[in-house]
Write a structure and sequence with these properties.
single chain, 87 residues, mainly alpha, extended, pyridoxal phosphate
């Protein structure tokens, strides 16, 4: 990690690295993962449907700008492109 420039505080960077690097379990991280897992179990399908809806809306808006094109499922030809992740 390069600490170049006056805006980089080496002590702050060291603290952040120490927060993320540990041999012990991070209870904050484990709790966050548990909450995320529960949320996906209870609302996962609805959440992903909303993500797909938003990505399709964004793709439509980008294509309406002119000079830009956001690809979609039309790329699928069964030979070189077999599937397309709409998210």
């Amino acid at each position: 990690l390069l600490l170049i420039g006056e805006q980089m505080n080496p002590e702050y960077v060291r603290q952040i690295i120490n927060l993320t690097q540990s041999t012990s379990a991070s209870y904050l991280l484990m709790a966050s993962l548990d909450i995320s897992r529960r949320n996906l179990a209870l609302r996962g399908k609805e959440s992903f449907e909303e993500v797909i809806e938003l990505s399709e809306y964004a793709r439509h808006e980008i294509n309406a700008i002119g000079g830009y094109y956001a690809y979609s499922k039309e790329l699928i030809d069964g030979v070189s492109v077999c599937d397309f992740d709409v998210t």
